[in-house]
Amino acid sequence: MTANGNDLAWLTITEACSLVARRLVSPVELTRAVLDQIDRLEPTLNCFITRLDDQALAAAETAEAALASGGEVGPLHGIPIAVKDNIETAEIRSTAGSKILAGYVPREDAPAWARLKAAGAIMLGKTNLHEFGFGTTTINPHYGSTRNPWNPDHVPGGSSGGSAAAVSAGMAMGALGTDAGGSVRIPGALCGVVGLKQTQGRVPIRGAMRGGNPTRDHIGPITRTVGDAALLLAVMSGHDPRDPTSRDVAAPPETLSAETNLRGLRVGVPLDYYFAFVDAPVEAAVRTAIGHLGELGAEVHEVRLPDHDILMDGLDAIRAEALVDHEHWLRTRLEDYGEETQVRLLALQFILANDHAKALRARRLLLERYAAVWREVDLLAAPTVAVPAPTIAAAQSSAVMVNRKPYSAGTLSQLTRPSNYTGLPAISVPCGFVDELPVGLMLVGRPFDEQTLFRAANAYEQTTTWHQQRPPLSTVSPSA
Fold first, then answer.
1. What is the mean pLDDT of the chain?
2. How much of the chain, in percent, has pLDDT values that exceed 70?
3. FRET label pair with 40: which of 267, 334, 348, 432, CA 20 to 30 Å apart?
4. CATH number at residue 300
């Protein structure tokens, strides 16, 4: 599972930052290496809606000049990053993967991207996504479908599929995604990279476009290592007075401890919900990963989450929030939506205000169930996705197989959605392969306790080699 790609393109963000700071590698060299990888693989993988090659190189040259002059530089100086195309970027087209917003050019940056840019990050382009973020596959009727770097016949997951595929394929050192139901963690798991959904409120969601999900949405990082995710999170974190969901809490540290001893950490394995609907080979890989946490010193306990299934069924009415941004277009531009998005939005119109109120009550009860669990354990461990990445054909025909039974592609978010309804932090890390496709381990933690997630995830990563595996890109040709 190795590639013949440019070695610079495969550096982690942490490694690249160190090399740039010591003047061993220049921002221009980094950016050219990643752009070369994009040139080679974009015709196959279709990760980007808008490429910004010239702007990226100009920004890299400016970053290089700043180093030469001895000026003060930020923690991400010269690092090439991709941004999901439903995150607003000033003077750069931001489509949300839709035909409706094909010509939309925002006036200002979303705070999450603005903070990365201020820290020195360079934008490579805007990545492909499921239309308006309403799906789990990144099959897009307007800009073409993104493909999985591990096997281009398969989906990368979604809705941040372009971001995850780009990071997995060495086409970006890191990327931003959004996560209202698993849209960072699902493609992270299916593409074999790290996907982080931090606690709701830690990173402003202002500028996350037209999803209409203030109760569930997050902007989070997709990276190749846990340490890189921690660094991006630290830079993006902070209160935004213009964002009512934003919380004024201390930012987590930028760097992680190299300690891999997990003695004293209590890991909960849910007996309810999370393992009830998982393909057997995926479950085996995840349980092996959990066993490894125990070998590192963690105490592993089985825990109960009473009524979890019932409460999750009652929460779906919260999705009706999405109608706020779409009512006008549903009346005036219905034909410009893709068929799948049309059906989703029209179905939401049948949800009543009373249903939404009941869903918010169910959310409160679900939070109470998790609060009780935190008295017993420090985090939960479970699969990120119930299956490896399905083929594009299977995803389009509701033939996603879980233990030999067919389901729709919506099943890919079955295990990630609870963390969006609760706002709890969750991270997906690579933990193995099934049929040569990646599998993700998901860790869920207490509110604003990303540090405990990072401790466990980083220890797991440092004592395994899954994160070092690369897609077989040498077998992927532009004509695939």
1. 95
2. 97
3. 432
4. 3.90.1300.10
